[in-house]
Amino acid sequence: KLYNSKKLHFKKNEYGACLSTFEVDWVNKMKNFFCFVTSDSNKTAYDILLKRIKDNQWVTYEKTQHSLLKKEDEIIFYIAGKNIYKQSFLGRAQIENVEKPHEVIIDPDNPEKEVFMVIRLKKIIIFKNPISVKEIINNLDFIKNKKNWGMFFHGGIREIEKKDFDFIVNYNPK
What we know:
18% helix, two-stranded antiparallel sheet, globular, disordered N terminus, alpha+beta
């Protein structure tokens, strides 16, 4: 026998499929990589980013794609908008926790939006120099259409491949 059946337990996942506890642990340990996007609202995107970093948290809204987010996932910060550091990657962090608020919270940086999830951040690093997406666009696989690249930053959170994440965090302009 390759395993002792008395020690291998099974659980149903959210879709009703049976997974062994080993598989559940393995899936939960896999890291995902995301690009967190902020844009201008009643403040500049850069000011919003700085406040979120200071607070060690990122808020999302109901329609934001956040179902895959979990503890230990790696993220990169991207500034959209039209003001300072626009269209640039500015730093990275790791997810400490993902929480659903117990009460209604209105985002102070975007008063028209109700906060749906709060993502607690740790290991925050601000890049020494912002990285313009235009400078590295041809090296990023998650941007399929290089002419209309802006649409790949819609939605607040974008899952990216480890390869793209590594390229951005290790980028060194010549």
